[in-house]
Amino acid sequence: MTDGGEVWLRPVVESDLEMFRRFLTEPFLVGLDWSGFKDAQQPARRFAQDGYLGEEDGRLIVNVRGQACGLVSYRQGLYGGMARYWEIGIALLPQWRGMGIGWRAQALLTDYLFSHSPAQRVQAATHDENTAEQKSLVRAGFQLEGVVRACEFRAGAWRDGYLYSRLRDDPAPSVTPLPDPFCKVTSAPSGTESAK
């Protein structure tokens, strides 16, 4: 699944498990979501179980120009006995952050979930200090619903979070092509600037 701008999502393959192990064992590789060391063998066990394509939760790999740069996750929740929804998350390797990949990947995942399930709602939570993710969610078509007080224990304290959602009937974002991070501006012999 692609947005035409070189960001696409694909199922997990065995070679991706090393990245998952890194997220579990390298402090702060996942940013503010670091919650201590975790079992480095868990990704292999889960991959053997269902390839991370479970009916109630799963992961897909975010690919940019043929390179795995992170993952998106989804898990099913339930409101009011019958109202199923999806909660999504994202973890990009540090060198891929700040390039517009995150919002595109989250928009793609949301469209995928709406296309393949009857869910009316996709939601995402983030930290109050993670302004980059807040902007990413808005760009992906999500709306801020509010503050969830004391919802996460992190770094020795209970912390608030922000809850965002996108409903099936909300307008999907207009996804533009990914800019070329390798494009350099140089001076042309005539004195005008050109991109190489």
Structure description:
This protein is α+β, with helices and mostly antiparallel strands and 196 residues long. 22% of the residues lie in helices and 36% in strands. It has four helices and nine strands, in the order βααβββαβαββββ. The chain has helices at residues 17-25, 42-50, 101-116, 131-139, and strands at 7-10, 57-64, 67-79, 83-92, 121-127, 143-154, 157-167, 185-187, 193-195. It starts with 6 loop residues before the first strand and ends with a strand. Mean pLDDT is 88; it is low at 182-196.
Quick recap of the structure?
The protein is α+β, with helices and mostly antiparallel strands. It contains 4 helices and 9 strands; from the N terminus they run E-H-H-E-E-E-H-E-H-E-E-E-E.
Number of helix segments?
Answer: 4
Q: What would you report as the Rg, rounded to the nearest angstrom?
A: 18 Å
- Reading side by side through the largest sheet, how are the strands ordered? 1-2-3-4-5-7-6
Query: Residue share in helices?
Result: 10-25%
Molecular shape = globular
Largest sheet: 7 strands, mixed
Q: Multimeric state of these chains?
A: single chain
